[in-house]
Amino acid sequence: MNFDFSDDQKLLRDQARKFLFDKCDRKSVRTVLDDDQLHYHKELWSQISEMGWTGTAIPEEYGGLGLGMLELCVIAEELGRSLAPTPFSSSIYLFAEFIKNYGSEDQKKKFLPSIASGEKIGTFALSETNGTPKPSNIKTKFSSGKINGYKSPVSDGESADFLIIAANSDDKGNRNSLSLYIVDLHENGVKKTSLETIDPTRPACSINFENVEAELIGEQGMAWDMTENILNRAAVLYSFEQVGGAQVSLDEAKKYSMERFAFGRQIGSFQALKHKMADMYVKIELARSNAYYGAWALSTDSNELPVAAAGARVSASDAFNYAAKENIQIHGGVGFTWDYDCHLFYRRSKLLSLNIGSTRQWKENLISNLEKRNIV
Amino acid sequence: MDFNDSQQEAEFRKEARDFLEANAEKRSIISDKPNDKSPQIAVAGAPETVKGGKEAAQEALERAKVWQKKKAEAGFAAILWPKEFGGYGGSPIQQVIYSQEEHDYLVPSGYFEIGIGMLGPTMMVWGKDEDKKRYLPKMITGEEIWCQLFSEPSAGSDLAGIKMKAEKNGDEWVLNGQKVWTSGAHFADYGMIVARSDPSALKHKGLTYFYLDMKTPGIEVRPIKQISGTSNFNEVFFNDVRIPDCQRLGGEGEGWKVALTTLMNERLAVGDPPGLDFDQIFEATKELEVEDGLAIKNSEVRQKMADWYVQSRGLQYTKFRSITALSKGQTPGPELSISKLVTASKMQDVSAYALELMDSAGMVHHDQNPVLKNLFQNGYFFSAAMRIAGGTDEVLRNIIAERVLGLPQDERADKKVPFNELPSGKN
Asked: Which of B160-164, B302-306, B421-425 is the least confident region?
């Protein structure tokens, strides 16, 4: 059994960690947090791109490094640890994966090189209203080569150049009515409106489409299947980001509890706090192991992916949400000040657990996929 | 990443599988076999309770001994032990592989684990050559069963608070006091015991470690009836029990150090806790009806099931990470320390929730129901014990906090004071 990353992948992780420690300190994160006009950290983005991270899992023929999904998992964990304020997930886990997996040869040639180089940014738009997206509440329409409709929230929409969008190609409003299209967001008829997110370092906007030119990607009527698959793939990568963020939340809680004294002793010597941190550790280890399994399924194109991805996602959301909220609790009063960093993790944890579908929804996915598999 | 065995591992697995296939019966997720251990927790040293009283218990013990002898002859009884004592001379990864394979079969368990896993290794480190030659081979074959006499009424989580008196009298020791939670004392032939030889020394300094014959005059074993109605543990009373000094392991006052050797092997001894998990309740939800149809179709049920699934598989994959380290010849990280903590509470939650799903029928033991049997009713009681046995949830959290996370130790009142001056409450 070899249920671990390779030495090369671990080396990549160490390099990424060191790089982000230098280039993505909390000051960089706060630059984006504190400035409404700034949607991501441009300098960090270009450095990350120069390192080739954006092209990690994109084949060399399309300008990427041609490494695998495991390498991307390793990088995702480090991005999560550092709270990197970049559109990496939207552009790489979602947009690039759609093109890579479902794009025509022409589309791959057209889009992947500039995404791999970080020069262009892509994202994905599904939801239009509050609540769980489902075929019947997608109202955006495609006809005669044009998109009309509304999407919200669209993560990294304001920074994005390209968009994969789910739209109806007929009026039936069922699963097979939906297709995916690629939109150039610089086209006429695109109107973006800023939204304030619970984590401004991961912004979103709403977008109106009025007769916007679009091209089909993948098979007509297959939007839902393609989306499920790409969200499963992304869920594994998100879970690594979440494990990374959870681990740092625990590390910082621990550090503070050893520096802070009350009643004449380190607060980290009180069992009430120790047990809380032990519980964080338990959740993080479970999440890490589930994420590893997801990574295995992702990297081997296993049939297990739907179950493995949902398991990784549910476990990682639980771990990061718990670690981030209890990190505030362990810090006490300073934990809910703007100056201390606890809220950066609290914001990110909740945002990440909602971004590609809520934990509730992923739990439902998990059980329905288990039923489908029918062998547990 | 892959889940494949190396060639060597695959060969060993085949060897184990061939042996098991030829000698044991496979078990299913939920089996109606009376001796299926799946509905229960096979705590090391606490074999499942056998219905039918003393005679049936004796029969079960004999069956276990027969099985153990076969297993020993095939070399699988003590994979980690050196060959000179009848072991396999194998590696931790081989132990893991064998346990994985055996897990799928209905075989007796709970009788020999403490001896082979914990007490034997202690004797290997601290015993004299003639002791090792005399006792270790029979420990493996199951001809002689051993028990561990550590806990006392006032020494549980705080194990070093032992009060059992050991007074030296010539080249004999006289033991007086009481042990408790002794698994298997009622069928064990020998035991290992820690006692207080110097009450005026500091708590951890005044202990001495011995082994003894359980038939020594003055030893009285009384079973403890648990909330499950079964008796897996005993109280053991010592009334002027005389044992020769040559049965001492380690020096006088060195008992704590020797006990740590035993306890360090505990993690290896306690294998896969089989029993109630996601798979069992998943099966049950496909049978049970709630207000809006089958339980598995109910959204609240599905949400809960997902939580248990990720806990259950999370533990399994955590084990895979440790096995990977073992397979590379490395020492696993501390990640497995979460295992019992998660398993016990999960079992308690799963059981209680399954009873909820049965609604008022959950009040009743379902001996006749071939699917559900007493699975969840039993689990409801067993899990309460499991959260305490082998380290309470709270002690396990302390261990994770202090040893894994490196958080400061709690302030302690018992560090610099002679044992007999420590406040000890009612006891």
From this structure: B421-425
Identity at B308, one-letter amino acid code: W
Q: Do A314 and B307 touch (CB under 8 A)?
A: yes
Mutate to test the interface with A, among B407, B411, B412 (most CBs of A within 10 A): B407
Helix (H) or strand (E) holding A153: strand A146-155
* A329 pLDDT more than 60: yes
Over the stretch B18-55, which tens digit does the pLDDT of each residue have?
A: 999 999 998 766 544 433 333 333 343 445 455 567 78
Q: What is the ipTM of this complex?
A: 0.95
Give the DSSP letter string of B302-368: HHHHHHHHHHHHHHHHHHHHHHHHHHTTPPP-GGGGGHHHHHHHHHHHHHHHHHHHHGGGGGS--TT
What pLDDT shows up at residue B372? 64
Q: Are residues B19 and B50 in the same domain?
A: yes
**Phi and psi, residue B163, nearest 5°:** -115, -15
Within this chain, do residues B78 and B134 fall inside the same structural domain, yes or no?
yes
Q: Are A258 and A268 in contact (CB under 8 A)?
A: yes
**Tell me, what CATH number does B66's domain have?**
1.10.540.10
Global model pTM greater than 0.90: yes
Residue B329 lies in a domain: yes
Cβ within 8 Å of B, A 334-353: none
HSE-up of residue B315 (Cα within 13 Å, Cβ side): 19
Using a CB–CB cutoff of 8 Å, tell me whether B404 touches chain A: yes
| Nearest Cα to Cα of residue A363 among A287, A312, A302, A291 | A312
Which of B310, B330, B399 would you mutate first to test chain A, the one with the most A CBs within 10 A?
A: B310
B328 and B244 in one domain?
no
Domain range for B395: 276-404
Distance to chain A for B121, nearest Cα, Å: 27
Examine the domain organization and report whether B289 and B248 are in the same domain: no
d(CA B69, CA B144) in angstroms, rounded, equals 11
Q: Which residues of B are catalytic?
A: 266
Q: What is the pLDDT of residues B58-87, one digit of tens each?
A: 899 999 999 999 999 999 999 999 998 989
Domain check: are B159 and B130 in the same one? no
Q: How many beta-carbon pairs below 8 A join chains A and B?
A: 156
Among A residues 187-246, those touching chain B with beta carbons less than 8 Å apart: none
Judge whether B91 lies within some domain. Answer: yes
